[in-house]
Amino acid sequence: MLNFTTLKPNQTMSNYQKKDGDISVFTNNSDNANAPSWKGNLLLNGVEYQVALWRKQGAKGEFLAGSVQVRQQTAERPAPAQSFTIRPEPDGSDLPF
Fold this sequence. Notes:
The protein is mainly β and 97 residues long. It contains no helices and five strands. The N and C termini lie far apart (56 Å).
């Protein structure tokens, strides 16, 4: 199930905590006629996706067509650090004395 989010007063996207199934789409201001009308992201099953939507005209009227791709990590947006726990050896062999 996808959740469309409405921000609360005094809430910005920078302090909004995404939940699984959330999708955020914003107007894409581009001079390129082939660029999507809207771009955004989707969090689904813990995986972040890029979303692109185009406004199209069809035989039955206006509609949206889109694509969803796994978000690629970039230098500006590095992959989240993985956490780990160091556990001592059960026999105490890691003790310095």
